[in-house]
Each structure stands twice: as C-alpha cells, then as structure tokens.
Amino acid sequence: TELNFSSPFELLVAVTLSAQATDVSVNKATDKLFPVANTPEAIYALGVDGLKEYIKTIGLFNSKAQNVHKLCQILI
Q1: DSSP letter assigned to residue 4
Q2: If DSSP codes are grouped into helix, strand and coil, which group holds residue 21?
Q3: What is the pLDDT of residue 26?
Q4: What pLDDT score was predicted for residue 27?
Q5: Residues 17-42, buried b or exposed e (16+ Cβ, 10 A)?
Q6: pTM (global) more than 0.90
Q7: What is the 3-state secondary structure (H, E, C) of 27-73?
Q8: Which H helix or E strand runs over 3?
Q9: Which end of the chain is more exposed for a tag (fewer CB within 10 A), N or C?
Q10: Residue-wise pLDDT tens for the chain (76 aa)?
Q11: DSSP secondary-structure letter at 22?
C-alpha cells in the first residue's frame, strides 16, 4: 500500500507517523486527521493530546504525537 496525502506537508506527517507502522494503519489515522487538520498551524493547535486521539491506532503514538507537534512548531 502507499501513503495517502495531497500536499507535501501531509506527506511529511504521514512519513513521520509511518516509522515501525504499516501504511494501512497510517492511512486509517490520517484519513481522519487530515480533513480536520492538514496544516502545521491546525495540527499544532490540536495539541499533543488532541493529536493522540487521531493517531492512537498507530504504534508508538505517544512519541509520534510529540514529534509531529514539535515538527509543526518548527514549521510555524
């Protein structure tokens, strides 16, 4: 399977989430996340705990949520 994305930023987030996870599990999470938040500002605004709610089905989601949140902060 391939990762689903529609922008370079979405690809960056999907690849960050894909470490030690299947593309299928990442796509399930991002299919719910990206309609709600698909920009660095929007994902950062969710906060770490808010982001966890979308990616909790992916392994290592606690550290991945922190890393994606930091990534968004850097991009902003």
Answers
A1: -
A2: coil
A3: 97
A4: 97
A5: bbeebeeebbbbbbeebbeebbebee
A6: yes
A7: HHHHHHHCCCCCCHHHHHHHHHHHHHHHHCCCCCHHHHHHHHHHHHH
A8: none
A9: N
A10: 699 999 999 999 999 999 999 999 999 999 999 999 999 999 999 999 999 999 999 999 999 999 999 999 999 9
A11: -
H-run or E-run covering 9: helix 8-17
Structure token digits, residue 7? 């922008």
pLDDT at 64: 97
CATH class of 8-75: mainly alpha
Q: Write down the pLDDT at residue 15.
A: 96
Token digits of residue 44? 């950062």
How far is it, in rounded angstroms, from Cα 60 to Cα 8?
Answer: 23
